[in-house]
Amino acid sequence: MPLLPRRFERLRAVLDQRMADLTVVLEHVHKPHNLSAILRSCDAAGVLEAHVINLRGRTPTFNETALGSQKWVELRSHSETSATLLQLKERGFRLVGTHLGVEAVDYRDGDYTGPTAFVLGAEKWGLSETGAQLMDQAVFIPMHGMVQSLNVSVAAATLLFEALRQRRAAGVLPSHGEGLPPELYQQRLFEWAYPQVAAWCRQQGRAYPELNEDGAIAEELPRTLRVRC
């Protein structure tokens, strides 16, 4: 069935506000409830993709808390902390970790208007020593009750929406697709609009077809594929 124009416009409206320079990195956070809630917050905040560092061979799983957010926020899996964080640094990300230490500052005093990766560890252990040492800035979320920390999914949402607030105040919050490189924008738009066709193209090792202004595929596809669109 062809993609309805209003559905295509909805996809574009959401993608117009996505940001490639804001992400979260989750170190050994593998509980489905927490992962699902964090991806839901990422989607709501306009994050394009997130990262999870898990035990080797463990596949992330989700529950109904995600409300399908895993379809709209790509979760990249990694097996090693140091390599993952160093790669993000090389891409220009500033690593901000929730880690209590002598140099930790109130999260509201950080600057998240530039490329930022929030790095969070499992609630029981926090960040590993390796992860903590690679942080550009350690932050904490002040507590005013008996408990000493927030659930990791709540902490992630708190940090993401502070970044959103700062970027809006600085006038750098994207609204017309400027948060993504044009080529990446078109790639994600096609994957969102036609996931089955995108999967077929990847299997075939070929480029995605062009889309017209109404979101229709401007190319003749095999009949067996067209009926699944």
The CATH architecture designation of the largest domain is 3-Layer(aba) Sandwich
> Element order, helices and strands?
HEHEEHEEEHEHHHH
Class based on secondary structure composition and strand pairing: alpha/beta
Which CATH class of the largest domain applies here? Alpha Beta
Overall pLDDT: 89
Q: Which stretches are low in confidence, meaning pLDDT under 50 for 5 or more residues running?
A: none
The tally of strands reads: 7
Biggest sheet character: 7 strands, parallel
**What is the percent of helical residues?**
25-40%
Helix tally equals: 8
Tell me the β content.
5-15%
Oligomer: single chain
What does this structure look like?
This protein has 2 domains: 1-18 and 177-229, no CATH class; 19-170, 3-Layer(aba) Sandwich (Alpha/beta knot), CATH 3.40.1280. Helix content is 37%, strand content 14%. The chain has helices at 5-15, 32-45, 81-90, 129-133, 152-170, 182-193, 195-204, 223-226, and strands spanning 22-27, 49-53, 74-78, 94-98, 105-106, 116-121, 137-140. It has a 7-stranded parallel sheet, with helices on both faces. It starts with a helix and ends with a helix.
